[in-house]
Amino acid sequence: MDEATWAALAAALTAGGLIWTWLAFRRRGAANGLRALGFTLLPAAAWLTGTLEMFTEIGTSIADWASGLVLDPLTWTGIGLAALAGVLFVISGFIRDRQLGRAQRSATVRGAEAPQSALAPRPGAAAPSTAVDDDLADIEAILRKRGIE
Prior knowledge:
mainly alpha
């Protein structure tokens, strides 16, 4: 295609975008209208920078690649392996999350048991002395109430 064709394509895409922008401003407000205006300016920017032709070449290459997939068993085997790899990634993520959850639960259980055993009196140890301060007496009463002396 020559330069005039690319310019016409960019102009048509921009004109369509301007209609979309006008509708977005009227129906949905300034934020959506400004977003639509940003998208509207992209075809003109792509034409002016020369990337519009590049984008169409990329699209054509992808279409040629996709049309080659139709009946090639070797390619479909590769697609199947890629799908299997994706499924294995998802399954391994679920397994890892379960293992981390178990590790956190066991750490929580171990953490909850440790203070009780640390505060429990040792056999043969001397009884703790009585608290002199009122605050310490209250804490000591709460500990006795819960069976921790």
